[in-house]
Amino acid sequence: MRIATWNINSVTARLPKLLEWLESAKPDVVCLQELKCAADAFPYEEVRALGYETEAHGTGRWNGVAILSRVGLADVLRGLPDQPGYLADGALLPEQEPRAIAATCGPVRVWSVYVPNGREVDHPHYRYKLDWLETLRQGIAADAAGERPFAVLGDFNVAPTDEDVFDVAAFEGQTHVTEPERQALADLRAAGLADVLPRPLKYDRPYTYWDYRQLAFPKNRGMRIDLVYGNAPFTAAVSDAYVDREARKGKGTSDHAPVVVDLNL
């Protein structure tokens, strides 16, 4: 069974790339993030033609998540239980952004998540990010401790260690590398999950994101922020894991690459 996660950075803009990749990589399950489209605007028919059912959660703005599966899609849950909200204009009533969706795909239960960016350390969005990660920890605890293979996949917007960025000094004082963010990931793993480390074919550091600017991708000035966290039954079944750098090459690509995990189940 092949499971992947990919921040697609607009499913509408990247649809040709997505369809091409689905045909070549042949994943059984794909977790997508940053759809940037409403759920009813997702290209369901195009991916259905390749054999995939889809469940999407999006409002047409900057977020949005989906799960594509050709091994079944059941028990779908949109949004985290008690998910915190965020409104930039300071409104009193919080708004729950479409950042999480869960489903059971064959023998595996998965969450596709798009963790808030955090913006700046002294910005309210940073506190929102930490609160969101804590809510995720609480929401996945039961599945993480269960006997069914289970994984949380997605864009976590946190580099777990200094080795997961091309130059930690370049990120000093910025989000994605702070101790509270990394501690939030550690707390998530402590709930019963482990990081499924990619094993790249060429590069020592398996980054998953490269800025579009300043030749970041050709220079491999990247970050590993797209992660797969699996429980013990999931990680025990892993036979291979890698970052598909080929999908990041060329024009019109996402600024993220897919992370692919093969399982023997």
Automatic annotation (TrEMBL):
CDD domains: ExoIII-like_AP-endo
Active-site residues, as the UniProt record annotates them: Y114, D155, H256
Chain positions of site Interaction with DNA substrate: H256
Chloroplast keyword on record: no
Signal peptide interval: none
Cofactor note: Probably binds two magnesium or manganese ions per subunit.
Chain positions recorded as Mg(2+) binding sites: N7, E34, D155, N157, D255, H256
Keywords: Hydrolase, Magnesium, Manganese, Metal-binding
Keyword Lyase: no
Site for Transition state stabilizer, residues: N157
A single GO molecular function term of this UniProt record: double-stranded DNA 3'-5' DNA exonuclease activity
Superkingdom classification of source: Bacteria
Endonuclease/exonuclease/phosphatase domain sequence ranges: 4-256
Coiled coil: none
Cofactor names: Mg(2+); Mn(2+)
GO biological process: DNA repair
Site (Important for catalytic activity): D226
Any one Pfam family match given in the protein's UniProt record, by short name: Exo_endo_phos
PANTHER family, per the entry: EXODEOXYRIBONUCLEASE III
Assigned protein family: Belongs to the DNA repair enzymes AP/ExoA family.
Protein name from the UniProt record: Exodeoxyribonuclease III
